[in-house]
Amino acid sequence: MTYLGRILFLSILLVVFVKQSETVCGYESCPETKANMVNIHLVPHSHNDVGWLKTVDQTYYGYKNKIHHAGVQYILDSVVSQLLQDPNRRFIQVETAFFAKWWNVQSETMKKLVTKLVNEGRFEFTGGAWSMNDEADVNYQGVIDQFLNETFGSCGRPRVGWQIDTFGHSREQAAIFAHMGYDGQFFSRMDHNDKDTRMNDLTMEMIWDASESMSGVSLFSGMLYNFYSDTPGFCFDILCTDEPIIDGDSEENNVKQRVDDFISYAKNVSEVYITNHIMVPMGGDFQYEDAKVNYKNMDKLIKYINERQASGSKYNIFYSTPSCYLNSLHQSLESWPNKTQDFFPYAHEKNSFWTGFFTSRPTQKRFERDGNHMLQIAKQLSVLANLTSEQHNEDLDYLRQVMGVMQHHDAITGTEKQAVLDDYDRMMYEAIAGASNNARDALRILTKMPNGEFESCLRLNISECAFTKDAKSLPDFNDLPQSVHLLTLEFFSENEILIRFEHFLDKSEGRVISFNIRDIFDSLGDLAIRETSLDGNMPLSDKKRFKFHARESGTKPSSVEYSTAQHKPLEAVKSDEASLFAVTLYPMQIRTFIIKTE
Amino acid sequence: MSSVKNLAILLALFASYIVQSEAVCGYELIKLVIDNNTGRLKTVEMNGVSENIDQTFGMYKTARSCHYIFRQDADLELVEDAFDFTVYEGESVKEVHQHVNEWISQVIRIYEGVNRVEFEWLVGPVPIDDELGKEIVTIFKSGISSGGVFYTDSNGREMMKREKDKREDFSPDLSEQPGSGNYYPVTSRMALQDSSKRMVLLNDRSQGGASLEDGRLEMMLHRRHIFADGSGAAEAINEQQFGKGLIARGKLFLYLNAVEDGATASERVAEKEIHLPFWKFFSKSSNIQSDVTKTLSDFNDLPQSVHLLTLEPYSKDEILLRLENFLDQTEGKVVSFSIRQIFDDLGGLEIRETTLDGNLPLSDMKRLKFHHDDSGPSHSVPEYFISLHKPLAADKSQDASEFSVTLKPMQIRTFIIKKE
């Protein structure tokens, strides 16, 4: 089964579901806001690196939690069940690499439930690429590729880029989002001096003119107030130790204090943004594994903050998404400053420019280019040769997915741990090998050479290629002495070759010659060689012929005589020295050999 | 007697020294001059331009860099010793092999008929026995008066102007990191120029690049560190292979060009050739029947500045096709062509245009449009962007003129072709 197939299947489901329930998604499903208040868009999210300190699979399955606690499968299980309990709750899903893994193993019932959540705007794909790609080290081709097939159906189509963790931001990324029809993007890393300046000037949000060559390519871009993690003091996740909201009849009741603190924070945020809307992300790295803890406390936060409106509070808080926040900004009819350059280099504090990762792990950065190269080749050839088998689709999809993973901001950047890099390399190598088979099969069709090898060599940069090295080149019989005739070259058995050499000059015309047949042996078979009688039927060493006594040749022998080979029969194996492969031919002599091949 | 003889020998040596203070290696398109004393590149002549370019290697020793951050502790240390070098001259390729030190070497290579100089660097194992991490860089120093400005590409597309010590909207704090804070990502090209000459480096993977002095381009090639940043990966970036520090190998490509309108188009073409060269497949036999290629689409008929960015299976009976005009507004112009032949060759029944990701029919695209501060009075109703051109939509029965595609500089258009 391929992800492509499954994702297309999802889009069909989505269509069916829309028809059944007539629900709305997108901007029409956004929560209501209040014109005369500060509207706080509370945005639940989990930031799930597609490999960083742990490999992709370790991160998904929650393995090696001693390195850090991360189990994305449980996050999705938990979030979905919490969303189903209350139609007001929202969650944004960012990294499709993980979502696809999870989706693949869900029951039909669960798939329908998730589809319903998507169609009602409660579970919203944001960013939506295979991974949250880096913006410094990536080539546009790799970025564009990882957005295809990962987004599906009209309700599943992301509207907003969510580049909250990438280490600086490129103008081309903004242009790519614009060309993909995205309405805006949010991020949270920029030079600390830049951020301070923008907070002062109320320019945290801007219109990025993303192309000098083309007009109309602009993208609304917003900088988050406090990184992408929770409001300080309000991390309700099991990974945190902040105070929960205690609202019972308890000595520990802290509702007043907690609401005061949150409103005070919201006031600070609202002072550096120009509309009466603010966005407060609620989440962080690998949060929401036990999502009821998060939602239960956010429910209370919302309840008690909004209760204060009755006594004159001007703060209105609700579950929302980045796209709904963006929609509110759009509706505000405000004007925004523009931006024309980019956000490199990034410095999170004094003395700390993130410029090392531009070069970190140089060999991995190169290998990623090879992966992209093979992906393009395999895709083009698949089209031209019309490859459609399940295996071909699976292999091509796997390389697509692995290249999506490689765009991740801890993959191509080289900022992952060594063990994670090793795993990326393994995946890429396997994926390239699979796609190479597609390329080979396509070339066999296109060239009408069903047995063509069409091997790819990944180590050409060091002039190494197993195929050309091990290939049996044709033996060069021209190296034989001039008077030697290749009398016979034929198959003797399935894995034996018979070869005869003849000295075709007689003793008045030529003389004894010696030559070495090691090269011929190597190129023909190379396991073993033995010499036989002329007919090839008897090992020469076994040859024992009756010898008859000629009258002129002296005294009669006292016993029966035999003649054996007059020279030592050649017999050798691959590991023997070349000198054992010397052949001497007298004028007119013919010698016969059998070479055993593999 | 003997002293006179010695003097003669000395004179002879001196004479040969004068004659051979440089080694010259070149073809019609390019001439390289190597300084015999230093073993380093001295002069490059190509595209009708000659410039003294001194290329060398250097390192920043530091105890505080990590996976993410390059923190400079001390001045750049250049390799001071002369390089041992040998020149190999062939009919189609010439190479200068440079032995820089025990762990850096390089082959400078030019090919007959190829208008760029290739630098194949080999760096590692980077020594850390002094217990300091190292950032290894190569430097190309020219006399070009670049006035503190250089250019780097943005993800392989448009070029970004970088001004030393400056940012668009704020004043950076470079007090402690004047070098690192002037590094930028280079994913395919970096360049500097004055009014007449231009020096360009293309690379084969992404790297950090900088121009810390006028006329000088610097590219970081390799890193090895022993400092584990507590906040990050919690281990040092210290790659090993075969029990030693990792050896990395790669290529940079140098271009020297005159500053003229559109001259950088050739750099773009080279970028594409480097990024996606011919993939080599190996087979024993090469008896490909001559008729087999006839049935394939001939993408060579596309205009020269058009790149077949993507051609891939989209669904069982659909193909995704992306076409890119890869020249920018200074290098190229609007191109128009018909894709009817490609459509037919691919067995097309219908074609439609989508957004760049392929996920949304372009005719359905309606993006939120936000109002610029400086673009006149604010609007009274929310505004939207729709496609700036009429999305292409056609089927097999329609006239070839319906298959016309116009691409502005840098524009990419995405199509889905339904086939038989």
Automatic annotation (TrEMBL), chain A:
One of its GO terms (biological process) is mannose metabolic process. GO terms for cellular component: lysosome. It catalyses: Hydrolysis of terminal, non-reducing alpha-D-mannose residues in alpha-D-mannosides. Its EC number is 3.2.1.24. InterPro entries: Gal_mutarotase_sf_dom, Glyco_hydro/deAcase_b/a-brl, Glyco_hydro_38_cen, Glyco_hydro_38_cen_sf, Glyco_hydro_38_N, Glyco_hydro_38_N_sf, Glyco_hydro_57/38_cen_sf, Glycosyl_Hydrlase_38. CDD domains: GH38N_AMII_LAM_like (cd10810). Residues 352-428 form the Glycoside hydrolase family 38 central domain. Keywords: Disulfide bond, Glycoprotein, Glycosidase, Hydrolase, Metal-binding, Signal, Zinc. Transmembrane segments: none annotated. Its cofactor is Zn(2+). GO terms for molecular function: alpha-mannosidase activity; carbohydrate binding; metal ion binding. Residues 1-23 form the signal peptide. PANTHER family: ALPHA-MANNOSIDASE (PTHR11607), LYSOSOMAL ALPHA-MANNOSIDASE (PTHR11607:SF3). Belongs to the glycosyl hydrolase 38 family. This is alpha-mannosidase. It comes from Drosophila sechellia (Fruit fly). The gene is Dsec\GM12705.
TrEMBL record, chain B:
It comes from the Eukaryota. This is GM12715. One of its GO terms (biological process) is mannose metabolic process. The gene is Dsec\GM12715. Residues 306-415 form the Glycosyl hydrolases family 38 C-terminal domain. One of its GO terms (molecular function) is alpha-mannosidase activity. Residues 1-23 form the signal peptide. Keywords: Signal. Residues 28-230 form the Glycosyl hydrolase family 38 C-terminal domain. PANTHER family: ALPHA-MANNOSIDASE, LYSOSOMAL ALPHA-MANNOSIDASE. InterPro entries: Gal_mutarotase_sf_dom, GH38_C, Glyco_hydro_38_C, Glycosyl_Hydrlase_38. Pfam families: Glyco_hydro38C2 (PF17677), Glyco_hydro_38C (PF07748). One of its GO terms (cellular component) is lysosome.
